[in-house]
């Protein structure tokens, strides 16, 4: 049995005067005319083409798009885990040619080593050459920040999915990355844990000031987290994706999940993703649809 979940909100150190111990030199991200194609049987699969994207240092951008639209591919290009077939990717003003030291990635699965305890897993993220004592203090600090103080000695199989993902976040943060890249980081978690993790990420961004690029297919998550929501899409099946919409989200934080303006943006984003404002009218049946209601929906 996993131990009880940690408190909903981690007690984060608040940087005094806007810059504290946790602050990192945030790096901007810039993509220009980026394309990525993969060789496939009988031809080439163009996944991304002509992608232009700027993420200002210290801001959060959420990347939305249908499954298979190339979101993970784009994130991998920024992280330096893959290279574009055309165009340029820059982090902190320097071209990305290899796995970028300034980026840290969190994936959907925590990818923890089962034979190491949480502290040992987080330590894997420490920059090479970190002295042992400093490293231990850093690990314990970031475990504390993500709400896992007291769980340093637990093995991954003894903690819940949410706690394992907190450890994965700490492993990324211990590198003090200028850019935090997250690929559907909360998609595998239950709905309530996901909401708590979103709040944790907002807190972490505020405490570190890092640039955050987060891939999600959850429109509400994008609107809760981001300063801008960028939607990837293509002209049709098989066509390469590019940026279809770049939408600023100006609501101050902490954000009210019931905010009326966010609800409007939500409708707009869902429509861009092919989900209409209303569902289909119920089929005529025993209970029968109310003809007036159907007509109202059709003319709305
Ligand atoms: N290494 C690869 N080789 C061939 N095709 C790939 C490779 N990586 C991704 N793709 C293809 O690129 C498309 C986009 O994938 P991905 O970026 O994972 O989409 P998303 O994250 O938006 O769901 C998919 O059709 C996928 O099959
Ligand atoms: Mg993906």
UniProtKB/TrEMBL annotation:
GO molecular function, one term: ATP binding
Residue ranges annotated for the ABC transporter domain, each copy included: 29-259
Annotated Low complexity bias: 278-289
A family per Pfam: ABC_tran
Keywords: ATP-binding, Nucleotide-binding, Transport
Keyword NADP applies: no
UniProt xrefs under SUPFAM superfamilies: P-loop containing nucleoside triphosphate hydrolases
Region (Disordered): 1-23, 278-300
Record has Aminoacyl-tRNA synthetase as a keyword: no
Secretion signal span: none
UniProt xrefs under PROSITE patterns: ABC_TRANSPORTER_1 (PS00211), ABC_TRANSPORTER_2 (PS50893)
Biased composition (Pro residues): 1-14
Database matches in PANTHER family: ALIPHATIC SULFONATES IMPORT ATP-BINDING PROTEIN SSUB, TAURINE IMPORT ATP-BINDING PROTEIN-RELATED
Full protein name: ABC transporter ATP-binding protein
């Amino acid at each position: 049995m996993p131990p009880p979940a940690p408190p909903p909100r981690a007690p984060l150190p608040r940087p005094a005067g806007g810059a504290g111990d946790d602050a990192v030199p945030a790096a901007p991200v810039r993509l220009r005319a980026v394309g990525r194609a993969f060789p496939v049987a009988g031809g080439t699969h163009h996944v991304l083409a002509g992608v232009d994207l700027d993420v200002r240092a210290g801001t959060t951008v959420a990347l939305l798009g249908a499954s298979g639209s190339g979101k993970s591919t784009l994130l991998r290009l920024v992280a330096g885990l893959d290279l574009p077939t055309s165009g340029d990717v820059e982090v902190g003003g320097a071209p990305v040619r290899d796995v970028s030291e300034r980026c840290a990635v969190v994936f959907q699965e925590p990818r923890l080593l089962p034979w190491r305890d949480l502290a040992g897993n987080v330590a894997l993220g420490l920059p090479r050459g970190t002295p042992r004592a400093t490293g231990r203090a850093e690990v314990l600090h970031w475990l504390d920040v993500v709400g896992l103080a007291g769980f340093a000695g637990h093995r991954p199989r003894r903690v819940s999915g949410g706690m394992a993902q907190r450890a994965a976040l700490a492993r990324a943060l211990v590198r003090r990355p200028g850019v935090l890249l997250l690929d559907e980081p909360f998609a595998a978690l239950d709905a309530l844990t996901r909401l708590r993790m979103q709040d944790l990420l907002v807190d972490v961004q505020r405490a570190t000031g890092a640039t955050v690029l987060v891939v999600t297919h959850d429109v509400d998550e994008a609107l809760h987290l981001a300063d801008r929501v960028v939607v990837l899409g293509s002209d049709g099946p098989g066509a390469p994706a590019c940026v279809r919409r770049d939408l600023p989200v100006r609501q101050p934080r902490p954000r009210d999940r019931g905010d009326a303006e966010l609800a409007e943006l939500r409708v707009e984003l869902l429509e861009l993703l092919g989900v209409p404002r209303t569902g289909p009218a119920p089929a005529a049946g025993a209970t029968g649809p109310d003809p007036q209601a159907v007509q109202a929906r059709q003319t709305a």
